[in-house]
Design a protein that fits this description.
Shape of chain A: elongated
Number of helices of chain B: 3
Structural class of chain B: alpha+beta
Oligomer: heterodimer
Radius of gyration of chain A: 37 Å
Largest sheet of chain A: 9 strands, mixed
Distance between the termini of chain A: 50 Å
Structural class of chain A: alpha+beta
Strand content of chain B: 15-25%
Distance between the termini of chain B: 76 Å
Strand order of the largest sheet of chain B: 3-5-8-7
Number of strands of chain B: 10
Number of helices of chain A: 39
Amino acid sequence: MVKKTLEIYSVELSGTKDIDQTDKGDDGKEKYRGLKNCFEPKKNHQKEELKKELDLDDHKLSIKELEKKYGTNIITGLSSTQAAELLAQNGPNALTPPKETPEIIKFLKQMVGGFSILLWIGAILCWIAYGIQYSMNKSSSLDNAYLGCVLALVVILTGIFAYYQEAKSTNIMATFNKMIPQQALVIRDSEKKTIPAEQLVVGDIVEIKGGDRIPADIRLLSVQGCKVDNSSLTGESEPQARSSEFTHDNALETKNIGFYSTTCLEGTATGMVINTGDRTIIGQIASLASGVGNEKTPIAIEIEHFVRIVGGVAISIGILFFIIAVSLKYHVLDSIIFLIGIIVANVPEGLLATVTVTLSLTAKRMAKKNCLVKNLEAVETLGSTSIICSDKTGTLTQNRMTVAHLWFDNQIFIADTSEDHSNQVFDQSSGTWASLSKIITLCNRAEFRPGQESVPIMKRVVVGDASETALLKFSEVILGDVMEIRKRNHKVAEIPFNSTNKFQLSIHKTDDPNDKRFLLVMKGAPERILEKCSTIMVNGQEQPLDKSTAEAFHTAYMELGGLGERVLGFCHLYLPADEFPESYSFDVDTMNFPTSNLCFVGLLSMIDPPRSTVPDAVTKCRSAGIKVIMVTGDHPITAKAIAKSVGIISANSETVEDIAKRLHIAVEQVNKRDAKAAVVTGTELKDMSPEQLDELLTNYSEIVFARTSPQQKLIIVEGCQRQNAVVAVTGDGVNDSPALKKADIGIAMGIAGSDAAKNAADMVLLDDNFASIVTGVEEGRLIFDNLKKTIAYTLTKNIAELCPFLIYIIVGLPLPIGTITILFIDLGTDIIPSIALAYEKAESDIMNRKPRHKKKDRLVNQQLAVYSYLHIGLMQAVGAFVVYFTVYAQEGFKPSILADLRVEWENGNVNDLEDTYGQQWTWYQRKYLEWTGYTAFFVGIMVQQIADVLIRKTRRNSIFQQGLFRNKVIWLGIASQIIIALILSYGLGSVTALNFTMLRPQYWFVAVPYAILIWVYDEVRKLFIRLYPGSWWDKNMYY
Amino acid sequence: MTKKEKKSFNQSLAEWKLFIYNPTTGEFLGRTAKSWGLILLFYLVFYGFLAALFSFTMWAMLQTLNDEVPKYRDQIPSPGLMVFPKPVTALEYSFSASDPESYQRYTEDLRNFLKPYDLEEQKNLTACPDRTLFVQKGPIYHACQFPVALLEACSGMDDPEFGYSRGNPCILVKMNRIIGLKPQGEPRIECISKSENTAALSTYPPNGAIDLKYFPYYGKKLHVSYLQPLVAVQVSFNASSSAVKEVTVECKIDGSPNLKNQDDRDKFLGRVVFKITARA
């Protein structure tokens, strides 16, 4: 069943791309462009247009007119040559895939996005500096040219990495767009041929039968009992009868049109193709959907915000110090080199890559929990969700009719509706149940598909409609092998259900060999069944049907109906053996048997029951401050009943109507403020102004929209977004795609969802389960917290990297840390620890917090920046400087002599520079000492970054509360830091280009006291935050 | 579109104004006076503490150091070679024999440099035994005499112009001081002219010898008035050559197995290359 639906709903959106490519002539492209053009000028009106219906007038034409219009003949069809011409002219019958950004553009975007542009500037400045040096002195050192190349390489590598990540995540999605090649039965040259559906052209005569997907928009010419499922187009899940008559002005409503990508459920039909490819109704909707702008994800906004802040800081400090350097009489060339150093120190080169990895790690984790994320950033968006607009069918419910209640012997019994039906506890001893169960079993045409004996009953595939399936499974669970029972009670006649009779009837031989009577069983709409009865069975005994029993029947019927359940009545009659001997031939057309004065046996009601995990998930949402709104096409009563049972409408809240009923007053008299819940139908919604909708959305905390069309979903989403909410929307039909696109996060159903919906969505729920959304929310919130930690961790050492440059410029010390060394921290030692923070568990129950406010709760806020830069960052700088000074002092240059030494130190012609002890150093010896200084400073930062990654595990709780060893990846990260540093110092210490030297072992420990200080300081900070919530300290120190 | 932008600009201007000073809350730059006071106090204390901690660790680190000898000397295992006087740019001497102005700086530098080598100044120094390391145990460390006369023609005694006025300039070559360095063998400075026919080189003391008695060096603090051994190179240009005479000279430490004179990266380790351009 599941697999079938997937096929049925799928729409060719991108799967046909490859096939198209070859035969898509310029003509075809021109056409598409034309089509696009007619939408483009009206971009702003698109939504209105969507909400309006689309025009088409072929349904009004007679067959003769149609034949003329399309130059075809309904008997012989088009000729092959005609068809080929039309194909060349109009292009293949397939939807053009949504316009994709060319790969190269995507790649280039990665190259210039974020910090890359700053690094490019740095690289270009390097080359300019080298150019100037070279023009002045042909033998000048290649250092700057080399640094420029390294910077460019960094940009390119991180760009490639980001591109690769994106491509990988796109590929995950691409698997969903797999298309099953479709065939169509067409009449051409007076012959029936099977051709690929892509080759259909306007005017083709096609034949469809039950189970087929309609291959194009077709005008039906002749129809035999054809029903179609238009749910992917209109959202109505009821099968729609088709005929060849023109029944409605609106193309979507008329019965003589079959739409591309919808499914023919039963019967056969012949039709003429009137629209193909993008010109079909579905095609037009799909292209409209791609026009609705994709909103920027909150995390994208946050990262942009963050890049702007850091970039701004980098540029302004850079320029400030450029000016200072120039006014301190430094050469402009030197000043440019300082500028480069400052930029490199300020830009967290590895951060964006880390963020991408972090997001994709979470995406993977979510995929395990059945949330497939298409757009990486959507992970976080889900976490900031404040309103979820959820479908009912399949998402909140199990998407299968299930027997919920029974009524017999004047009593209502509750049936088990859980996913496996295992626990049926109602009284099965009564004689009435024996009769009722017999009717349920026999008066049913649904059958299990053969060969499923090993499959659990509830999961077996059934051929038959939803109610009959429910009854079949129900009886199979309780009675055992239904097919065997039916075999023993041979069916001799049958009238299937139809909408005029509203009942279904069958006549059987009984399995009692002593009883030669035929048994007539009937089920149908309860009131119709009751009309046909004169007796009622109570406790296995037939009794006359009097007023009081009829009353009892009505009460039960109303009660079950009020639960939003579909109620069926059941009755039977043993035909007297003398009138109907064994050889009697029943004729269903003349009805040569009684259909009145039957014996009423009982009622049975069915509902699509909620998934068992949903009520918990809804409660979780509520505690997390997320509003859950149900949007469904179903009847308000059913919708409300499900909403109540899953807790979307909580047990003690009432709607205006409920209050009116309770107080016996008119609806208008009720004070609207008393009602917390509201059930709004699509018709009411249609008449609402945006202001009224806003009012509705703000005043009621529990809202159910019933009888809505998918188009109205868009209106609801927009209404929610006007409340500044981050809206998540679920959807499955093609018509949901605009709402999915418009929503902050569109969630498509993996099982029931159409490809168009999946294309428009940011996320796909593989199990269609609402509870998975809530899991996603939890992950999303966690990732936001963890990203904060990662960024705080990464930003901290920027100060420690920046200070050396500033002090170098102002005080004139030999350069404490080189640009390349900085890159080794940013892209070397720091990478794995910062990713490791993504594995950190939630600090406290993140599902008890209010959703993040889009504008107020930023990823990088002032507190985070200040605490990272001015507190921990400065401590790191101080600690690293201590290591630096130690190395220089122990080699002979005491701090006092270092000040203002820069010019002589760097002068290649000074080869007898005197140190504190009177020794003289050549330029290269000094340079080597300088590199040792770089290494020392690097190690100093690295050691303190270990403390930094540990303190970033928590923002509020003590590390000991969080558990020092719960996140093993952190320790892996720390190990990687140490190992990389060891390799750089001892392994590559002899590679001059890298500017690392072998550092004495004791220098690795000089910064340890500072690392401990960082830890202690942060513990104190957290302690005060916990002790004095809301205090000055809390406000200034909590990030 | 532009209108909208303009409006947002005005808006942001107003927002900025409100940010700088908000009259209703009395906030200045987003904080009230009290808040500013608190935050400044906090940072005063915090940074005061950090500064104190830094000073303390630096002090503690300096306590571990010896005033006389640096803790490590691994980065200068072998001395560099350097010339004196120092030319303005690079190691290129350029002067005109007929123009005293052009070489005045060099001669002045030389005179100043050689002042400590004056016989008068060396009176208190020890006359150490030749050709042997002058190892001392302290506590007082003696410096050996370096009679300036060893430099002969370049001593400045006979020719205060150090040969510049005659177009035969003197350049001093010296070896970098390294504490505790004990050269092996018989170190000497060997200079060669890269273009032999244009100029002849003479080195003083003869053969460019550096006497071992000047080693080891005990550091600025202990080895007060230590005199670095010098070698002078005098360039004599051939009279026949043209008006502008040019020579590139390379000097190397030789004769001592533990003093390196060849390093790919360090062009001054035990060697030095300089160029002299003399105009008429």
